[in-house]
């Protein structure tokens, strides 16, 4: 089984993904880290040297390559991954898609605390960050909502994580 974790930046796709993979006895892959390793550059360096379109093409190719793996996988995608190149349909066809949800204030708080160097938000003032997150979250939610499973990623404890893992195990189309 392939489990694709989608959701906005900073919702916990990587940290929760590792825990989900452990509980499922699956391998874990972070799509951004996979791209960085393949390219020998950070995501920020890729964005700086090329266009967003170039990155989205790399992202699509990496997603397809990872999905060919025969092993059980939990894949943490980038926040924009499901919104480009028909990636969402691909993920829905290849496995279970889980939307890790947080509301805009929670996301803004997490991004503000991290002092993020993420290309889409680098250099934004707190007001610009808020405007950007609210606007892009509204746009991306149209894609995220198509996920097989929706999960509130705020204050996840062992019990709630266990419930999510059971939903994933029990999911069938």
Question: Could you characterize what this model shows?
Answer:
The protein has one domain: 3-Layer(aba) Sandwich (Rossmann fold). Helix content is 55%, strand content 13%. Helix 6 crosses helix 7. Strands 2-3-1-4-5 form a 5-stranded parallel beta sheet. The radius of gyration is 15 Å and the shape is globular. The mean pLDDT is 93. The longest helix is centred in the C-terminal third of the chain and has 19 residues. It has 8 helices and 5 strands. With 173 residues, it is of the alpha/beta class.
Q: Descriptors for this entry?
A:
alpha/beta, single chain, 173 residues, 5-stranded parallel sheet, Rossmann fold
Question: Tell me about the biggest sheet?
Answer: 5 strands, parallel
Number of helices: 8
Poorly predicted runs = none
Strand content bin: 5-15%
The side-by-side strand order for the widest beta sheet comes to 2-3-1-4-5
CATH architecture: 3-Layer(aba) Sandwich
Task: Please state the oligomeric state of the protein chains shown.
Answer: single chain
Helix proportion: 40-55%
Q: What's the overall geometry?
A: globular
The Cα radius of gyration reads 15 Å
Any idea how many domains? 1
CATH topology: Rossmann fold
What does the average pLDDT come to?
A: 93
Q: What is the SS-derived class?
A: alpha/beta
SS elements, strand count: 5
The CATH class label is: Alpha Beta
N→C terminal distance: 12 Å
Write down the secondary-structure element order.
EHEHHHEHEHHEH
CATH superfamily: P-loop containing nucleotide triphosphate hydrolases
């Amino acid at each position: 089984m392939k489990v694709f974790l989608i959701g906005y930046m900073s919702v916990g796709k990587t940290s929760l993904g590792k825990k989900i993979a452990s509980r499922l006895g699956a391998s874990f892959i972070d799509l951004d880290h996979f791209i960085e390793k393949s390219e020998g550059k950070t995501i920020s360096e890729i964005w700086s040297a090329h266009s967003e379109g170039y990155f989205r093409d790399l992202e699509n190719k990496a997603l397809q390559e990872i999905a060919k793996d025969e092993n059980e996988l939990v894949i943490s995608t980038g926040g924009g991954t499901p919104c480009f190149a028909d990636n969402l349909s691909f993920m829905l066809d290849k496995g279970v898609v889980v939307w890790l949800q947080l509301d805009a204030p929670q996301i803004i708080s997490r991004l503000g605390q991290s002092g993020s160097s993420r290309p889409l938000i680098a250099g934004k003032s707190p007001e610009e960050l808020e405007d950007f997150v609210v606007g892009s979250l509204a746009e991306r939610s149209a894609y995220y909502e198509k996920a097989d499973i929706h999960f509130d990623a705020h204050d996840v404890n062992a019990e709630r994580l266990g419930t999510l893992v059971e939903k994933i195990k029990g999911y069938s189309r």
